Amino acid sequence: MRIALYQPEIAGNVGAILRLGACMGTAVELIEPLGFVWDDKRVRRAAMDYIDHVAVTRHAGFEAFRATLGPESRLVLFTTRAVQSPYDFVFRPGDVLLFGQESAGVPLEVAEACDARLRIPMRPEVRSMNLATSAALALGEALRQTGQLPQ
């Protein structure tokens, strides 16, 4: 199981997700371009020393990222434009959980390249959750279902 971030814009969110990956034993893939300078100290501040405990891979773009996916990997997009809940979806151990830009999500061609599209349930009067919060909820459910939660 891996988390992939499509062109993330906010260093603090990436740092928090790196910390999440470190705590849960999940690699994090970053699909460039990033909306901030990678050596930005805000990333390290949010990730703290946890950044040394997570596998991070940067990809030059979406196609470069897709080329790394093996046959056992399904690309599962989390988007406010989906209708299926992750709580009604059956995750597999090789799934890659994909999250879009904080301001715009992913372009249509990226969404169409995904094997599944899921929407975290929330009240209708609000637009979306924070990226790191969404990743934590999604990863927790996926790891729970696949028996991969750390002890």
Q: How does this model look, in words?
A:
This protein has 151 residues and is of the alpha/beta class. The chain has a single domain, classed as SPOUT methyltransferase, trefoil knot domain (Alpha/beta knot, 3-Layer(aba) Sandwich), CATH 3.40.1280. The chain has five helices and six strands. It has a six-stranded parallel sheet with strand order 3-2-1-5-4-6. The protein is globular and about 40 Å long. It starts with a strand and ends in a 5-residue tail after the last helix.
Instruction: Please write the string of helix (H) and strand (E) elements.
Output: EHEHEHEEHEH
Number of domains: 1
CATH superfamily: SPOUT methyltransferase, trefoil knot domain
Q: Round the mean pLDDT to the nearest integer and report it.
A: 94
Q: What is the topology, as strand order, of the major beta sheet?
A: 3-2-1-5-4-6
CATH fold-level assignment:
Alpha/beta knot
**CATH hierarchy class name:** Alpha Beta
- Give the CA-based shape: globular
Task: Kindly name the structural category.
Answer: alpha/beta
Cα Rg: 14 Å
Number of strands: 6
User: How does the major sheet shape up?
Assistant: 6 strands, parallel
